[in-house]
């Protein structure tokens, strides 16, 4: 509960996004405490990815307010400096590890490019920092010098995390960032994420459909459906004693030994 | 036990510009009538290739050794009409139904086409049967659905249409290659419920391919775990999930986060999943195995009977005794 | 040449380009290299002045020091072919370079900015499609007087929409990729993202297209010169030579037209083949087999 006393590092208030007639996100409000980890859980079409894209400025909210690190970012940046500052505050790691990296650029060069963009470090200092970041996500010098095509999905995703962390953002959005990974690799990346949060104090907004993964990483859970939040609370409470019928359905749909899948007999067009 | 499907020592090699690459080696697996067998593995493990080998949907130039018997017939010898008959009789459903249905033709065209061509059934009769199978997969207003186009249906609904289509051939064995992987978890539950009911009502056997050990444990009678083109362990699903004999199965189970509690740290497997062509000599898992001994690097363990199933690990007994001791 | 080597470099992330070119593609590249070398060192190979006319040798048969014989004005054919190679290669090179530069700039800007600018650009390109390049070049020659420069400029303008259309759609697809969006989120400037990441990743497509367009440009320029609106006499050019050799054909001396036409055909085929080979692998030139993604919870 101590976390709630702190000023939130990210605050969404009444966020709304429409695409033509369709309402993708409707009145979403949530707060993320510094060094916290909040998960947005929901199925396809729930609007969770649209929320993430609005926070990083890839979509423009139809209505509502986004405040990160105490500054409003609901409207597009007015200057190059403002754009860079926003980039230094909130970063994102996407789902697909295969198109997340420039195929012509080595991971080391990719991370260094971000350092050049955001810092005034000297070339030797930048190289040191690249090595530190590589170490943070468990990649070797050899990995950082290779081309992305020589790296596995898990390694690429770690590069994407290192690149996102290069400018030392206060908030990292992970949009289904471990969903495409094999189980054994997913575990490695989840551990890396836990280490990174502990060592850097970055806050996570973790977007996922996988409740077990969410339990492993998040302190709090927000459940979205059809663009709206239907339930929120501490992870253990939401998963162990779900209050909303939809959360209960999500929980009951997770396969486990002895599980008997059930038909809801709901007919959608 | 003589099953509907018997795969013995299946080895598949694909040609590449450099050298032939093995994708499966010594895969043995059997499915009894009406039984659901899960095939679980990470990328490159060869699980899809195994299913494709059964209906001979392999890339051109693939070399196949070993035998696959479906209802006693060696499918390796089938050609032409006999092969087409096998493929019709052992239907396959895929992860992405949209890629396997013609987007400009109606659901009705899709469902009745095979019947009208192969079965020489009249249009009205074919449509009646199509509506009936749609009913079987829980799509009530079949008459209306027949006139719809694939893009008008959600992914879950379309996957049920694909399942309905397979029923028209009155199959005894269904091959399902990650049929719910692209679906939301609640939709997955519905599709799995449909498959589960059909299996019980029709005595349908199923080879269910998935990366999700929990899903396999939940819906399959037996589960086979594959790694680098080889079967590591085959056992009754619940036993395999709760008390794995092979270190790889154990590591997979441990690496998956739990819905019930948060682990301090997840137990990881060092390295990355290997494909058959990259596998080391000896046990294919030896480089990532926490229980590796010198012998594991030189001797390749065969799949051999143990407790209620089969396992391919030199130290299985030893490890079991240690974990239970 | 620059085109080929750029592509060879661009391909280093994936499998080798040599495998993709195949024997035919390599042969085509060899022909092109040979033509470029001959054009460069031509004057050293032959001592005859390509413009020196000696009417006594009109349509003269091959002789010592003149292995291909003479044209209707008694000029040495070999030296005319070799000098003609220069204009015949440099003209298309300028056309391709200018139209590529303009087309890429327009396409990338439209694709990146999007919105109304993209709509306006697309509409303008549609209008430009309506003008056949050769016709435009002749129109320009009619207004500003004939000459190589006018023809090159006119053809370059006429090629812009074709290049812009291709690059625009490729750029639209590329900019939606997460690696570009990640840079946007970082706050990198549009110019730096485009120059450092977007365009280099489109380079294989651009190079393949440039090679193909080189062959079109050669033909179009030859047509313009054939009609006497391109390179002006007495300067040698293959297109002009085909046209200039006409009267020779009628008099039973087809060597000039045939030799010049043959050079055009061989090079056009070579550029075409190479362009085809370069573009063939494009859609599959991803450095790694595409791996399926699991349950996409994207909204």
TrEMBL record, chain A:
PROSITE patterns documented for this protein: ABC_TRANSPORTER_1, ABC_TRANSPORTER_2
Keywords linked to the UniProt accession: ATP-binding, Nucleotide-binding, Transport
A GO BP annotation: peptide transport
Domain ABC transporter residue range list: 10-251
Gene3D superfamilies cross-referenced by the UniProt entry: P-loop containing nucleotide triphosphate hydrolases (3.40.50.300)
Top-level taxonomic group: Bacteria
Molecular function GO terms recorded: ATP binding; ATP hydrolysis activity
A Pfam family reported for this protein in Swiss-Prot or TrEMBL: oligo_HPY
Family: Belongs to the ABC transporter superfamily.
Protein name (Swiss-Prot/TrEMBL): ABC transporter ATP-binding protein
Taxonomic placement: Bacteria, Bacillati, Actinomycetota, Actinomycetes, Streptosporangiales
From TrEMBL, chain B:
CC terms in the record's Gene Ontology section: plasma membrane
Ranges for domain ABC transporter: 5-253
SUPFAM superfamilies: P-loop containing nucleoside triphosphate hydrolases (SSF52540)
Keywords: ATP-binding, Cell membrane, Membrane, Nucleotide-binding, Transport
Pfam family, one: ABC_tran
Major localisation: membrane
Cellular compartment(s): Cell membrane
Keyword Cell membrane: yes
Gene3D superfamilies to which the protein is assigned, alphabetical: P-loop containing nucleotide triphosphate hydrolases
Single Gene Ontology MF annotation: ATP hydrolysis activity
Membrane topology label: Peripheral membrane protein
An example Gene Ontology biological process: peptide transport
Family: Belongs to the ABC transporter superfamily.
This protein's name: ABC transporter ATP-binding protein
Organism: Spongiactinospora gelatinilytica
TrEMBL record, chain C:
SUPFAM superfamilies on file: MetI-like (SSF161098)
Record localization: Cell membrane
PROSITE patterns: ABC_TM1
Major localization class: membrane
Highest rank taxon of the organism: Bacteria
Presence of keyword Transmembrane: yes
Topological relation to the membrane, as annotated: Multi-pass membrane protein
Membrane-traversing stretches: 21-45, 93-113, 120-144, 150-167, 202-229, 257-275
Keyword Electron transport part of the UniProt annotation: no
InterPro entries from the UniProt entry: BP-dependent_transpt_permease (IPR050366), MetI-like (IPR000515), MetI-like_sf (IPR035906)
Listed GO CC annotations: plasma membrane
Name of one Pfam family that matches: BPD_transp_1
Protein's UniProt name: ABC transporter permease
């Amino acid at each position: 509960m101590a976390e709630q006393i702190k000023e939130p590092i990210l605050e969404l208030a009444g966020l709304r996004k429409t695409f033509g007639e369709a309402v993708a996100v409707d009145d979403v409000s949530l707060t993320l405490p510094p060094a916290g980890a909040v998960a947005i859980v929901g199925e396809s079409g729930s609007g969770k990815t649209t929320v993430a894209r609005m926070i990083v400025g890839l979509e423009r909210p139809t209505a509502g307010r986004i405040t990160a690190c105490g500054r409003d970012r609901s409207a597009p940046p007015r200057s190059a400096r403002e754009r860079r500052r926003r980039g230094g505050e909130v970063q994102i790691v996407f789902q697909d590890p295969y198109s997340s990296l420039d195929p012509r650029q080595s991971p080391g060069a990719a991370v260094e490019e971000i350092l050049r963009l955001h810092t005034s470090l000297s070339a030797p200092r930048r190289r040191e920092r690249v090595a530190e970041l590589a170490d943070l996500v468990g990649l070797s010098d050899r990995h950082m010098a290779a081309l992305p095509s020589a790296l596995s999905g898990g390694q690429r995703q770690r590069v994407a995390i290192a690149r996102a962390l290069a400018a030392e953002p206060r908030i990292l959005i992970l949009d289904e960032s471990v969903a495409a990974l094999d189980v054994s690799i997913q575990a490695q990346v989840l551990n890396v994420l836990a280490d990174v949060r502990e060592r850097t104090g970055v806050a996570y907004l973790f977007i996922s459909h996988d409740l077990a993964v969410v339990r492993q990483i998040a302190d709090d859970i927000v459940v979205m459906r059809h663009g709206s939040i239907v339930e929120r609370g501490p992870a253990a409470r939401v998963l162990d004693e779900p209050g909303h019928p939809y959360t209960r359905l999500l929980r009951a749909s997770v396969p486990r030994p002895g599980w008997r899948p059930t038909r809801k007999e709901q007919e959608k067009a | 036990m003589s099953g509907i499907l018997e795969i013995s020592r299946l080895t598949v090699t694909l040609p590449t510009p450099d050298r032939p690459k093995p994708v499966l080696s010594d895969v043995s697996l059997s499915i009894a009538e009406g039984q659901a067998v899960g095939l679980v593995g990470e990328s490159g493990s060869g699980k899809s290739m195994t299913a494709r080998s059964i209906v001979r949907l392999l890339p051109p130039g693939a070399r196949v050794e070993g035998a696959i018997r479906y209802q006693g017939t060696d499918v390796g010898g089938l050609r032409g009409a006999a092969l087409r008959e096998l493929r019709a009789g052992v239907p396959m459903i895929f992860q992405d139904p949209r890629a396997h249905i013609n987007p400009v033709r109606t659901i009705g065209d899709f469902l009745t086409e095979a019947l009208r061509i192969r079965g020489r059934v009249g249009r009205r009769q074919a449509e009646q049967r199509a509506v009936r199978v749609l009913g079987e997969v829980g799509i009530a207003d079949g008459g209306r659905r027949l006139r719809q186009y694939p893009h008008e249906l959600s992914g879950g609904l379309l996957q049920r249409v694909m399942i309905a289509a397979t029923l028209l051939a009155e199959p005894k064995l269904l091959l399902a290659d990650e049929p719910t992987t692209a679906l939301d978890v609640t939709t997955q539950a519905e599709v799995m419920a449909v498959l589960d009911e059909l299996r019980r009502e029709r005595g349908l056997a199923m080879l269910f391919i998935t990366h999700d050990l929990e899903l396999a444990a939940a819906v399959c009678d037996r589960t086979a775990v594959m790694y680098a083109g080889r079967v590591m362990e085959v056992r009754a699903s619940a036993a395999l999930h709760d008390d794995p004999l092979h270190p790889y199965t154990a590591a997979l189970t441990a690496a998956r986060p739990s819905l019930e509690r948060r682990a301090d740290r997840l137990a990881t497997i060092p390295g990355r999943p290997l494909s058959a062509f990259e596998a080391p000599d000896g046990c294919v898992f030896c480089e990532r195995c926490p229980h590796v001994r010198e012998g594991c690097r030189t001797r390749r363990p065969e799949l051999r009977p143990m407790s209620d199933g089969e396992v391919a690990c030199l130290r299985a007994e030893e490890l079991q005794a240690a974990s239970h001791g | 040449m620059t085109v080929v080597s750029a592509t060879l470099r661009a391909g280093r992330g994936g499998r080798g380009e040599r495998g993709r070119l195949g024997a035919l593609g390599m042969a085509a590249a060899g022909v092109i290299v040979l033509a470029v070398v001959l054009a460069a060192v031509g004057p050293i190979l032959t001592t005859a002045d390509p413009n020196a006319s000696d009417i006594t040798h009109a349509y003269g048969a091959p002789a010592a020091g003149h292995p291909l014989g003479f044209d209707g004005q008694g000029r040495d054919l070999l030296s005319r072919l070799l000098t003609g190679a220069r204009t015949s290669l440099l003209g298309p090179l300028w056309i391709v370079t200018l139209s590529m530069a303009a087309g890429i700039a327009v396409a990338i800007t439209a694709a990146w900015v999007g919105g109304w600018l993209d709509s306006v650009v697309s509409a303008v390109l549609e209008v430009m499609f309506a003008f056949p390049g050769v016709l435009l070049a002749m129109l320009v020659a009619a207004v500003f007087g004939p000459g190589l420069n006018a023809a090159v400029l006119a053809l370059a303008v006429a090629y812009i929409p074709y290049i812009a259309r291709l690059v625009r759609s490729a750029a639209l697809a590329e900019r939606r990729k997460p690696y570009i969006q990640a840079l946007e989120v970082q706050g990198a400037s549009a110019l730096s993202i485009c120059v450092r990441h977007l365009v280099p990743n489109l380079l294989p497509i651009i190079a393949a297209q440039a090679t193909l367009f080189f062959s079109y440009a050669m033909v179009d320029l030859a047509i313009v010169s054939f009609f006497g609106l391109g390179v002006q006499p007495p300067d040698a050019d293959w297109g002009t030579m085909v046209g200039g050799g006409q009267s020779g054909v009628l008099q039973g001396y087809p060597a000039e037209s045939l030799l010049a036409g043959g050079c055009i055909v061989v090079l056009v085929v070579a550029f075409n083949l190479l362009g085809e080979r370069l573009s063939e692998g494009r859609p599959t030139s991803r450095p790694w087999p595409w791996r399926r993604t699991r349950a996409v919870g994207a909204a």
